Amino acid sequence: MTNRPNVCLIHCHDLGQYLGCYGAAVDTPRIDRLASEGALFENHFTTAPQCSPSRASLMTGRHPHENGLMGLAHATWELHDDERYLPDYLSEAGYDTHLFGLQHVTEYPDRLGYDEIHSEGVLSPEASPAIHEVDRAREVSGTFADCVDDLDDDDPFFASIGFFELHRIKNDEGVHVFKDDRYESADPEEVDPLPYLPDAPGIRRDLADAQGMLRAIDDGVGTVLDALDEAGIAEDTLVIFTTEHGLAMPRAKGTVYDPGIEGVLLMRQPGSINPGRHSELISNVDVLPTLLELAGEPVPDRVSGRSFLPLLTGGEYDARERLFAEMTWHDVYNPMRAIRTRRYKYVRNFWHLPEVYLTNDVSHSPAGEEVRTEFDSPIRSYEELYDLEADPHEQENVVESADYEEEAADLREQLCGWMEDTDDPLLEGPVPPGDFEEIMAWPPE
After folding, report:
1. Which pLDDT tens digit goes with each residue over 213-227?
2. Distance CA 26, CA 92 (A)
């Protein structure tokens, strides 16, 4: 692998693995080509099924309850004061670091360690569509293309390139949709339904609209790749394409079922990374240590992830046997922790909530309208266990089955041990929101 390559980290909202290269019946030619020219990770999962906590894990190599971002960054949650962020590490390694488009990790982007912020978008995805003019895929990628010649100097560069899509947009009627006047939807009759949801008109409508946004993401990725080619630095640049969690659909975003925590992970550097598909379990906390090893930097002990650089270069790799996911706060308190192995998913829920939690944007959407009543009751079990080999869409909770008693006990012990080892505050009781002191400061003096 080229010594200390440039790094372009392209990331978007709410995409999951809804791409042609992952088997979805969608048209994503530029992304699919990127996948064919590089490494595709089939079993890449994020630490959380929501934006800010998962993005913070990608950028710190630590789980949300370790780095402090257990809820959305625009909703009073913040990283711990002593957290270090990927551009900070790479800057120390001699990289010039640049932010294009959204970040959605902190309200204070100056703390993230970027040398230059080119077009950081609005932090909250809930802002009106008109506000998000600078962080749409086509606009952000165009800004990068305009700047790429200036980035190529004696030092390698790191560019974080963040796209708003596929985040839902709240329209004038208060419905959260995947559409505004800049996207051309597919035909709802032509889309393939999702295997974990009913084939209902509202779900088809949402998927058809999402494909319009998806074309914008594909165009944005293509613009970045073309800019690298035109600058003559494609072989000197590692391109990573990823997302922070699954589709903003019921039983996906806001849940730790696989559709909620699955995420695209593609990596390409011509002549340096061996093209191919990888089935090993990968967590998004693993990306930071991989990049640090690539840059020749030591991986700090506090980093929870582990480098998978040998998978990219053909070296020996000790594969993961398990990974972890979590959620604490989103638009309501929804505390849960999960462990996933190759075959099993074990989930521990710590609060009274509906059988399937719907985030606010999913609940108030055409797809959410189709399933809201069904998913709102009964109260979910405190424990869930799924045999992913027999039940890949996690429909049958077998935690109380005698046939799975040993598996449940083993995974329960492993999850509890991980929570103890990482000082998970949930073990001490309910986790208050980030504005707890403000809530309790009443009556005013």
Report:
1. 999 999 999 999 999
2. 40
